[in-house]
Design brief:
Length: about 375
């Protein structure tokens, strides 16, 4: 009878490594915790929202009206963007008072929404709308430069400007991939002779929670001979919002598929499963609706798309869970779900026999 060489199995070769890992379980646990926490913090920091920046520092050189912008809020439902502005102008009042003209600052009046400073009951397409802000440079100089008169109003004003999803193909229904565009047109004139004065935005600040607002450079700059300043702003959801929404939808799908598999095996094939597992799908139905409510800035209701849509995300999962809940609850009416049914015992016996035959043929 020929001798048979005994070849050590791969499991036997790995046993020293596995034994060492078991002995160092505390160190390994701490290592994995540190790696996971560090990775999560790094990803969150890399995907953080950035401060609002539409500055044009080159245009700020010279005698121009400087407008400092602060982004307050963005409303995707009303499609508005709220911003605060501070107006300043270089003035040499002591040496040359003529360098301190009173200035009218104009915005495109049609871009305002209800509540803006210059909103009127009638909006026209006139080239010279109502001034948005009047800057009295003489009083401004006396108050803020010489500190001799504090009675005038501060040179601050607020605008509620329009943003639109028209032309982007990504409306609010496309959350978290919705996209909006805002076009700002600003110019200034000498209040005495209507001569044009340059406008610049030397600094901006602010943050709209959940949104990134960036400047589209190729559509921004000084637009004409009247020194009109044009700014095109693109508004999208922050990357961290998009990643979180996708992770939520993926988690919902994974949980749903696990419960569907448990339902099929228990109800239709008769495998015994603990009663605690059978009552989880009804509880998960309510948990999913609460989980959807954690999505930052998600539209109310289920009419929004989240990773190709609620219609292929949350809603199908809720329908499948409802299906599982009905069958996994009704099974208590027909048999003890914690015991294997005869049908499942036949399947298990057939599988065991098939596995045994395969093992025997491998030895031969």
């Amino acid at each position: 009878m020929p001798s048979t060489a005994i070849v050590p199995s791969q499991d036997q070769g790995n046993r020293p490594v596995i034994s060492w890992l078991r002995r160092q379980w505390i160190i390994l646990s701490v290592f994995f915790v540190v790696v996971i926490v560090g990775f999560s913090i790094g990803v969150g920091w890399a995907l953080r929202l950035h401060l609002f920046d539409i500055t044009d520092r080159q245009a700020a050189e010279g005698n121009v009206v400087s407008l400092y912008a602060n982004l307050i809020a963005i409303d995707p439902v009303g499609q508005t963007m709220t911003m605060d502005w501070k107006a300043t102008y270089p003035c040499e009042f002591n040496t040359n008072p003529s360098t301190c003209p009173d200035i009218n600052i104009f915005f495109d009046e049609a871009s305002f929404r209800t509540g803006s400073l210059s909103s009127n009951s009638t909006v026209s397409s006139n080239k010279l709308p109502t001034p948005t802000f009047f800057l009295n440079t003489t009083d401004y100089f006396l108050a803020f430069k010489n500190e001799s008169d504090d009675r005038l109003s501060s040179p601050y004003f607020r605008t509620i400007l329009a943003i639109t999803s028209a032309g982007t193909g990504r409306t609010l229904q496309s959350y978290p991939f919705d996209k909006y565009i805002s076009k700002i047109s600003i110019f200034a004139q000498n209040a005495a002779d209507n001569s044009s004065i340059g406008v610049a935005i030397p600094a901006t600040d602010g943050l709209a929670t959940g949104f990134d607002a960036v400047l589209q450079g190729n559509l921004s700059g000084v637009g004409d001979n009247f020194r009109t300043l044009l700014k095109t702003i693109v508004v999208t959801r922050g990357q961290v919002i998009r990643v979180y929404a996708l992770l939520v939808v993926m988690a919902v799908w994974l949980i749903t598929l696990i419960f569907v598999g448990a339902c099929v095996v228990s109800v239709f094939f008769g495998k015994g499963i603990s009663a605690c597992v059978l009552v989880l799908p009804p509880a998960t139905l309510f948990a999913f609706t609460q989980l959807r409510g954690t999505l930052p800035g998600a539209p109310a209701g289920f009419g929004a798309t989240v990773f190709l849509g609620n219609f292929v995300g949350i809603l199908p999962c809720l329908a499948l869970l409802t299906f599982c809940s009905v069958f996994m609850t009704a099974i208590f009416l027909f048999r003890n779900p914690e015991r294997d049914s005869p049908h499942w015992e036949k399947i298990a016996a057939h599988y065991s026999g098939f596995q045994a035959r395969g093992h025997t043929s491998g030895l031969s």
